[in-house]
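S.,

As promised, the NAP run. Input:
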Amino acid sequence: MTTKKALITGLTGQDGSYLAELLLDKGYEVFGLVRRSSSSNLDRINHFSNNIQILSGDLLDQSSLMDVIAEAQPDEIYNLASQSYVPISWTQPALTAEYTALGVSRLLESIRRCKPNARFYQASSSEVFGQPDESPQTERTAFRPRNPYGVAKAYAHWMTINYRQKYNLYTCCGITYTHESPRRGTEFVFRKITHTVAQIKLGLANELKLGNLEARRDWCYAKDAVYAMWLMLQQEQPNDYIIASGETYSVKELVECAFNCVGLNWEDYVSVDPAFYRPDEPVQLVGCIDKIKTEIGWQPEYSFNHLVELMVDYDLKKLSS
Ligand code: NAP
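Predicted complex:
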């Protein structure tokens, strides 16, 4: 049997690093597109970087994408690269569109020209729903993005579907809701909480400042999410799916759970700071996972409590070492 080849964009990010590990475990030859940086950004992949091939390219540069695809000749391409932080999309809206929207056009066009039989996964986001008119959201819920990141992801989503319809390419969109892990940046609220709780337990901090404690999110583990991405590209026909936990928890429930993990009372340490309120708080973003469950048999393996425990545990160990 010939070895399957996969190309991952966004290899150095949270999802890219977990997906590469999954594909290596499955015996794939893995290629990662990495943009040039003046200092190393390989922290999340250093432990396996000898087992993959890193190719230099950038979503801003069409010819680099064509060269990378022509060189790797991948059977599967996972586009996980993006400007992925919503607040920055308000201060850098044009750059966000360049990476997150037009970058996908460049990639699809490169696939069409250089490797039209490759299977393509596009990382869509629940931010395309913005303030949805129904809850939970399904694959048929109307898109009403409410920030430049969501708008850029909506463009990329529809371009991916258009290339499937017009050129008969095997292209899929996975609409992921928030997913977390010890590899998540501390600017995101889940990791900010687990990291600060570990700091407080170790005497390195004494306060956790948060915004709206009643805000609810649909959270799952990044390892579960990347497994869904891989599964989607193994199906006979390309299709689009919501990837979520199907449940919501409030920030307060997350905080309580994280402080419980270290045996402390959250009310002694948490203060609410309006500066952390997100200006356009989306209402009840929660994914309906009936389609992905029924059609391809995916559902998350890790519970919310398990995820909180493993992240607090990781942060405690990392800060103590
Ligand atoms: P992440 O950790 O922020 O990683 C983003 C990756 O994109 C990094 O490897 C980054 O490379 C790369 N990148 C950015 N601009 C690029 C460019 N111009 N050319 C090439 N590479 C570029 O994101 P993530 O959490 O793994 O998320 C993966 C994907 O899922 C993203 O598209 C994100 O928008 C989407 N998503 C994520 C979530 C979530 O909860 N995590 C939810 C919904 C959707 P550098 O290392 O060089 O910066």
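The chain has ten helices and 13 strands. The radius of gyration is 19 Å.

- D.
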